[in-house]
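Review box. Two proteins, two foldings.
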Amino acid sequence: MNLLALVTASSAYLSTGISSLEAASVDPSRPNVVLIVCDDLNDYVEGFGGHPQTKTPNMAKLAESGVRFTSAYSNVPVCAPSRGSFLTGIYAHTSGNLFWAKWYDNPILKNSKTLMEFFKDAGYTVEGSGKMMHFHRRSDWSEFANKADYGPFAFDGKDRVAHSDVPMPYNDIGPVDGSYGPLEKIPFEGQYKPGSGWVTGAWNKTKRFNYSDPNNLDLTPDEKNAKWASERITELAQADSGQPFFVGVGFIRPHTPLHVQQRYFDRFPIDELIMPIIKPGDAEDTHYLDVFKDTMKGPKYFRDLVASYPDMETAILTFTQAYLACVNAVDECIGQVIDAVEDNGLSENTIIIVTSDHGWDMGQKDFLFKHSPWEGSTRIPLIIHAPRVAKAGAEVKQPVSLIDLYPTLIDLCGIKGDNRKNEKGVPLDGFSLRPLLVEPEAGQWDGPDAALSMVYGGQKAGNFNPEERWNPAAQNWSLRSADWRYIIYNNGMEELYNHQIDPLEWDNVVKQHPEVAAKMRDEVKRMTYLDRLAIRK
């Protein structure tokens, strides 16, 4: 049996059980949906146990009327494959869309409906703006306003660059990951660089970002998308068409470059900022660098940041201030969208979800980036406001993942149908979170006990069958249960962390608990088809 057949069979086993009836809806009382997706947002959100000084009052307010999933995880902690997975409801390892390929060229995903397509076929008005899919496809939406824009960027008159105030060698990383600072600090101000300053726009459409003073500036891309969403929700409410809507809003921040107004930085004075907890030598019992080169972004960014300042504490606090400022800024944008729902009397008939595509490590294990197998990169905030269903103000500790969003939304909206366009598509991999929304502490959820994440390791490794399109044994897998995190790399090396006593994942105890490692290794194999293919263990 080839891998595609195995994938299809396994997906059917994991399927939510959605029938093959044609997606359609004639019930005008079906709830509206507002899906808000941030980029690179880790647990630095109030109520999620991250940085104690974070300021996210709008997300906190939403959680009071909904449910916080405090053990929610990204299935692939990097932008493109994460979004390609959760917005199609299909694991990356099911489709083989593992890393930076265009999801709509994938043989499985192009024959399966995205979440947006499913709602369109069900009679919803489906509109969006900002960064939803990493690779945008206009046809998935009824209307789409603004494509992803990571600006404002520093500009030296010829190219986008890191801000001139960012010290070397971190500045050398470049205009996206190597730049942070308030918009009031105009790049190259006072230097003779004609045309320098701030720019924004897609990579091939650079345009001036005007900044004269705090009261005279262009809207940032996130502010523009918040304004669009607020106005569009108001228009949809006033249209009174009886047609439910699905609005997707993709905010960039806190993705780099970390550029927002000074007022956000001022809320986190460095001399009052608490240092993220980083244990010296914490990377010594890990195996990331046994698989990846130390020139990979996570280790390199950490080294370059620390080398740019007198000491590690100054370096990490400077970056943390910029990150928290961007989290606070995006929270204000989220609040603007939520307010539009409330101000138009839609709160009792609108599902609102706030989440992120993955997290971000803040220097733990000498790693400053996403795409690690550890808690910082994989854990995400997830808040679901589901009127008449969710137990307001509750917390769910059961590990879940982004793969469960698609089946949850179509369940909550009462939509029946097949997510497959034809026999080349595959069923959904996730499970509806409805039971956990209704009974957060004791809901009888049909999903797995642990959340699965994958860090890309290449297309081939070990014994590879050339008839298969890709090999799961080439990847690096991380499995998070309520009490444990287990990691197995593609060279067979393992890590195990006991979250009951070690929530910061300081001590790899795989040798002390071989029975736990063996059980979780078997679960990884079952969930990823590794039990049917060779793995070096």
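Next protein.
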Amino acid sequence: MIWPTSSITGKNSLIITRTNSRNAPAVLLACVVAVPVFAAEVEEITVSSQRLEETIPFELSRYGNRVEIITAEEIQERGFVDITQTLQMLVPGLHIAPKNGPFDYFDASLQGSRNTEILWLIDGVRITNRLYNGTSPLDTVPAHMVERIEVLKGGQGIFYGTQSVGGVVNIVTKSFASATDGAVGTSINSNNGYNLNGYLRGASGDHQYVLFASKDESDGYTPWTGTDIQPSATDLDRGYAVQTLGLKYAWNISNDSRLSLQYQATDADLDFSRPFLNNTTTNAREEDILTVKYDLRVNDNLEFFIKAYEHNWDTVYTRIYNTLDASGNLDGGVRVVNDGDYWGYKDSGANAMAKFNFGGNFEYVLGLDYQSFSGTDDVWRIGDLEEDVTAAFAQIRSSEDLFDNTMLALGVRNNQAANMDDSTVWNLTGKHNFTDNFYMQGNAGTSFRLPDAEALFLNEFYDADNDGVPDGGWFAIGNPNLTPEESENINLAIGGNWQALTYELTWFSRDITNYIDSYVPITIGGVVGESFVNSNDEVNMDGLELITSLTINENWSAGLSHTITDAQLNGTGPQLTSIPQSESKFSLDYRHSSMPFGLSLSGNHVGDINGRRGARRGDYTVLDFAGFYNFGSNEQHRVVLRLENALDEEYATRIDVGTLDLTGSSYLYENLGMQRTTHLSYTYEF
């Protein structure tokens, strides 16, 4: 793991061992968060990048924002299957609870935020639709396509827009290279699952290309306890089948300009299992992302970037229930609840950005952002919805010469939504190095979050006889009268290094007005259901995050993070739903100094979490063991063995509502996290 981020030695230096002009951003970003390097041969040099967008996380870290980086090497050496598992075990301060294993929905919280307050990106393109921002964007993203994952903490609304209240997670796929290389690999696991993956990249003159593909399938596991499973459920394993194909092309028109195209397509069949009535339930999805980018570096003082993209998400949902006789027993029949019903959305947009530096004490960034969202849902009976948002943003940054050892940046963004009032947010960040080994940094600002389509228009209200009373034991409806949330946030941290130990302690706070409270109990016709409301109370989210890393010797290193969060209405009452009161992550890594093998222990301890209807989950510890061995004349072969959830901890990842066979009334059941699973993988690099 790369902990912590602010361990750069010197005032604004970058410590790297190798680079080339084509891949400068990847190297630069990997180094901005590197654990302190103690090898004598490391040299300090300066790298400039052609790609303005790709350097945003690095620039934000220089000016006081916390950034975490997970590299492809870390993912490969630990044998992770999907992105959700990777984030669950490796990113401090980010709580992730995959509902039923890989490629599934999940609950998330970043420094006390809710899932809907995290913006998810692939190569800078948002994969969270504004109208469907409660929908999991990671259930079709395999781990083998990743070059690195960037996690930015705190409000990031200046560059990324309204959903980045708690932070941003950007998944960067395989990058361009100046020389030809690639890899092919395969893996199997003890849940009757397998993976096939590969990539190829290279260059011909001024042209570069990347191809990558991945196929994942598994029968899955049974994600409930025996007491929660009703006799009416006959399909008890939650499986998946995911295929992903990606293509990148770049034309380096000159040393200072580049045109690039990218296309990524995913075809997935994902079980949506239930422990009651379930015969067959699947989301069959086709998803694609098309992106065009142009970068121009006029000179050392002027850079431009333009991007256009389109993201399509098309799902066909099938839900078939078994039927029961009058005694509540299976009668051999089925009831088709959803017969290939469609739900999906489309995002498209454009972004233009310029950076100016006229040699004075300040640097300027100006930009325009256009986003168009649309969605249709025949499952929740949400009509065809559209929304356009146009935004202008600007940031002014101090140069290294303005203040000794201090960097400051002030940004502002104005959002103009077609169906909502305009909103303006601001952000002030800064970092001061007291010495080469001790610093203080922070950011403060405002954020704005619009209600999504689920909160506004959800309609899980079954009333076949039209008597105004729901048929069945549970219902959920949206509230079209919801208003947007507004929040103020601050992150303040101190950090540094002492001999082989690096550390950072952060206090974070967020106050939200017009808080959208989800799944609030309501009663219609004597039947209890759930809806959404704007709370009259202010929500206060406060917490501390400690991140440390220790280089024990040339072979051993360790990392530990601990996050505590109070998230309450007006600072009193119970913790808000799905936000853990505490969470710890730890790692112990062994890398032999002269032999090509290593071992890793990763742990995730999650404290108590309030679930739906007053239920509680959490207070569990998940341990992963992994080992890798490289062999061959050039160490081009790699074998990885991973034991996921090594202690076979039984833990709840989400609380849901089901229907009892005998009475038809509702009950709460726990979705269980991944059981102990063995993964064995092999990769050949060339």
